[in-house]
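Input.
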Amino acid sequence: MSTTLTHSKPKALVPQLRFSEFDGSWEKKKLGDVGKVKMCKRIFSNQTTEYGDIPFFKIGTFGKEADAYISEELYNEFRSKYSFPKIGDILMSASGTLGRTVIYDGMDAYFQDSNIVWIDNKEELITNKFLYYIYQIVRYDSEGGTIQRLYNGIINAAKFTKPSLPEQQKIAAFLSAVDDKIQQLSRKKALLEQYKKGVMQQIFSQKIRFKDEDGNDFPDWEEKKLSHYIKVSKKKNEDLIYNKSDVLSVSGEFGIVNQIEFQGRSFAGASVHNYGLVETGNIVYTKSPLKSNPYGIIKVNKGSAGIVSTLYAVYKCKPNLDGRYLDYYFQLDDNTNRYLRPLVQKGSKNDMKINNEKVLIDPILIPPIEQQIKIIELIESFDLKINNANEQLKKAQEFKKGLLQQLFV
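Output.
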């Protein structure tokens, strides 16, 4: 069978990009024409456990890893009496991040009622594999503005266009091959990140050792207070060298970034004259709890200089420390939490009770500066590979996005 894609002449209900063996107009339909919206029987919180037999997927864990379970007895009872997806059905999030999809593969699992739904598709009008991609491009309309939840009526009224079953199968097979490539690139990136983390754990536990230029072992690492390596920076933006466009944010995943570029707008106060100056190479401690880092995070500024609010602590590295080493050390959540836990007191509103000087009083094992550089160079080589894999992944995702726009009406 030919797989040649051709550009169609503009006309009603014909996609811009089409396989050469197909012609004719597509047909307008609504999702309500496909089948009834279904959901599992409701599970109450007192029927779930932290550990158990059958994973229970809530909206927050949908498509990820379950963090709640139900008994096998309850699972068998509810599955035999109430609605349950069949293999190949497309599960969809009806709240939270609307429209996220997962193809049900028959695994023993239960799904949160009304938040995770599917259409009971008989595949007479549209194949499940084609429906999977329809979900990725369909637009839901609602009176009154922003949709907070996909109620059954909203799903039923959503419009789409469909070709013949053979053309559906051809498009779905082609896009499935693109998805396979995206998954391969995603796995490649994840494996590189996992390998990097394992190497870092061995480096910081000194299971991996380095030699100097003459092939000799470096001196043993010394345990000293963090104040031996960094000191509090008290530089402020008093001369208004920087403005709101220079405000920095600190991300657990991306490090120190420009706030407007990262979050889309500035959250700075009316005046930034008392904001702390952050030069390239400075260390910043964020006194805000994150899920993986309940005592805050510590990052080095690898980018341009800027300013941060008084909620952040800024430190300057002494000559015996390269800030990039400390950034890598604290990239491991266990290292960050183990160091900060004894120092931080939390208030009634989960706020951090710690001054900037106290952060420096606990001991930490850090190698000589020459060995720091070798460690940095090795880990940066992993970062380069991860960044390359991420760029390939982004390009594949953009390629798919373009295909979806051109292969569907």
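The chain has a mean pLDDT of 91.
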